[in-house]
Amino acid sequence: MRWHILAIGKPKLEYARLGVQEYVGRLKPFVPAEISFLKASAGNESAALLERSKAMFRIVLDERGEHPTSLGLAKKIGEWEQHSKRDLALIIGGADGHSEELRQAAGWCWSLGKHTLQHELALVVALEQLYRAYTIKAGLPYHRD
To answer: How many CB atoms lie within 10 A of CB 86?
Structure first.
């Protein structure tokens, strides 16, 4: 299994840039993970994300998606592993979100909550949750119930 994190626009906020580096690095011992930043462009972002994630299992970060707990996300990742999902694309849109076409093409829509987050912050939170899920799966003490 490999994670391909596809995000619109490089983080401009220093804390977000550092957070992305931190959690992509923390994921590496558990699973290969690479991040690609696509250029922001009015109206073409979803098409570019669809093209870049072709042949991958798409996980779209969207406020209309499911709200799993951290344990639920770990379980979902385990299910994807059992069903031999090889390449997973975590897709984070820009300020205008995703098109309906991209949401429909997703294997799963994931929401970090009912609130709307600035997309750079959402990227950091999503990466931390992926890292947390892998530590749960590995039985490490990072997550506490």
So the answer is: 11
Is residue 32 in a domain? yes
CATH code, 8: 3.40.1280.10
Instruction: Give per-residue pLDDT as tens, 29-79.
Output: 999 999 999 988 766 798 899 999 999 999 999 989 999 999 999 999 999
- Distances in whole angstroms, Cα of residue 80 to Cα of each of 16, 27, 52, 58: 28, 17, 20, 12
User: Has this prediction a pTM greater than 0.90?
Assistant: yes
Tally of domains within the chain: 1
Range of the domain at 37: 2-138
Indicate the SS3 state at residue 10. coil
Whether residue 24 is contained in a domain is answered as yes
Angle at 107 between CA 120 and CA 124, to 5 degrees: 15
Q: How far apart are CA 84 and CA 82, in angstroms?
A: 5
- Please state whether 84 falls in left (phi above 0), alpha (psi between -120 and 50) or beta: left
Whether residue 85 lies inside any domain: the answer is yes
